[in-house]
Specification:
alpha+beta; Heat Shock Protein 90; 2 domains; 5-stranded mixed β-sheet; 13 helices; 5 strands; phosphoprotein; histidine kinase; nucleotide-binding
Length: 447
Amino acid sequence: MPSTSQRVLTWFGVDDAWERPRPPIGRQDVLLAAGVEVVSLLALELVRSAGGLERTDAPVWAQWLTVSTGAVLLLGRRRWPLTVAVLAALHMFVAGVTMPEVMGQLSLQIVYFVALLSGVAWARDRRAMAVVVGTIVLFMFAWIGWQFAAGSALQQWIDDEESPQRTGAFPPIPAAVAITLLVNALYFGGAIIGGGVSWRAARQRLRLQEQAETIATQAGRLREQAVVEERLRIARELHDVVAHGVSAMGIQAGAARRVLDRDPDAARTALANVEEASRDAVTQMRRLLGTLREGAGDGAGEPSGDRTTEAGVCHLPELVAAVRDDGLAVRLDVVESQPGAADRLPPGIGLAVYRTVQEALTNVRRHSTADSASVVVRVDETTSYAEVEVVDNGRPRHGTSGSGLGQLGIRERAATHDGQVDIGPRVTGGYRVRVRYPLRQDRVGVS
């Protein structure tokens, strides 16, 4: 446990590496010194007029010079705090020895107090501050102690010669010196503690400013991260749209080419499907690109919510039907613990389920020899989970390796919702994509 002296030194920042910035002499320093100068000279003449300086033998110009030099010290109280504190202590001592009545003026006492307080508050080298201020205080109290000792001896001599009658519990001269000692203890202690409080307040303001800057920087990084994540999400959506649309168009175009000569009607139907798939893909890409433009501050007219794909479990029959038209036999089953449970899924999870099925079926058509697949969506509100599983009966098709972004998108979407992913070939043949999402009751939508 630190000692009292260590706690005091820590409070005054003696071991703190921070250096308080010292401003140059500015307008407020000049105004302060000028104001103290005027008030001090006025107060000095008022006291002289009232007869308070009768015992002062120094000439008037010396008294004016003493008061003026004290006011001038305040000019550098922030720029050279320790130098000003030392000069103020010397000023107090010289004035106190040569003209104590002038030194005791309230205006000069305020000057000394502010000079010592500024030395503690503005000193950059805290160890030098402790040495300088400690030396000043010791010197001043040694001077007061000498006056006390001299006063006690003088009082004893007076008692031996005249034996005056006392009116209080203490002899007059030692009592006067003792009260002087007490007043000076409060005076110097107040200046030192006030300076320490000022220094600590400045240190705390800097820390708060640094924390505010750190928070602002972190907030900026979080905003940038949110933008990046949103763009990555949109990129995944765009990949799904393009992959699904291009795959559908490729299959339909291939079918049209094969039957173009022998079955023109079937070729026209396939080409119509290509046209419809291309239009749907272009529409979705425009929505997603519109969202990107809004994120860049382009100020597009429509809200982003209108441009973002809002697909969900309810749209899976249309997706499956489109895949069946491409020649892949797909069976869709939606298993609900309660009626309407799939419709009450949170929009984010509903979209993730839809995109997972879309990506899985696209991969089946492009990279597998499968001729059939099954899609099962399970929603159980009792145990709070939603699961989607896509299984096919094919093998990997050679020469059709993809970029892997589709499966990466599935995993990233699942991670966004704390889901568990199982992707890979089955022991019994075929390929399986299964994602399980936990549901919180407060996130389940209400139909």
